[in-house]
Design brief:
Elements: H1 3-18, E1 23-28, H2 34-46, E2 49-53, H3 56-63, E3 79-84, H4 90-101, E4 106-112, E5 115-118, H5 119-126, H6 131-166
Antiparallel strand pairs: 1-3, 1-4, 2-3, 4-5
Helix pairs in contact: 1-3, 4-5
Length: 170
């Protein structure tokens, strides 16, 4: 069998991994210790994010003809592929946290909802709260006026009740 035929299943695996992904990122991982890498992989796995190391030539082949083709120009050195099928901000949030904690780790570039993002843009995306946090904030801001109104009505009712009790009975 030719080498190309042996590597085709890996290219297919990469293609399947990036298919229908909300976020695809490239990160430089060289220099991380086993403990650091294990801790990072554990958190990524718990968040439903895929983190795999592939050869650049295989990623290049898999990216051809997809929206990830823009990442081909950044395939130099040791790169890992970080993919999320659900939340476009989650991989950037986690990777930014670990990039601050572990200096060898750097975010290179990515595709977020079909748009190319360089390292600077990925830092901006990392600062966006997750969908759940944003929904919680929205719900809190919607409930706040109602809660305050109910509190004021209750205080008025309590105050009027005191006034009725203080008035002499006839």
């Amino acid at each position: 069998m030719a080498k190309v035929e042996l590597k085709q299943p890996i290219v297919d695996q990469i293609s399947e991994t990036i298919k229908d992904a909300k976020a695809v990122m490239l990160v430089k991982y060289l220099g991380l210790t086993v403990e650091e890498d294990t801790a990072m992989r554990k958190e990524l796995r718990e968040a439903g994010v895929t983190y795999k190391v592939f050869k650049n030539t295989l990623m290049n082949r898999a990216f051809q003809g997809t929206e990830c083709e823009a990442l081909c120009k950044d395939l130099e050195g040791g790169n890992a592929l970080v993919v999320s099928k659900d939340d476009p901000t989650k991989p950037a949030n986690i990777m930014a946290k670990y990039a601050k904690k572990y200096k060898p780790l750097t975010m290179v570039s990515g595709i977020i909802d079909g748009c190319y993002a360089d390292a600077k843009k990925l830092d901006e995306v990392a600062n966006i709260p997750s969908r759940d946090v944003l929904l919680g904030r929205l719900l809190g801001s919607m409930q706040s006026p109602i809660t305050n109104f109910a509190r004021v009505i209750k205080q008025i009712a309590e105050k009027d009740g005191e006034a009725v009790e203080a008035a002499p009975a006839e």
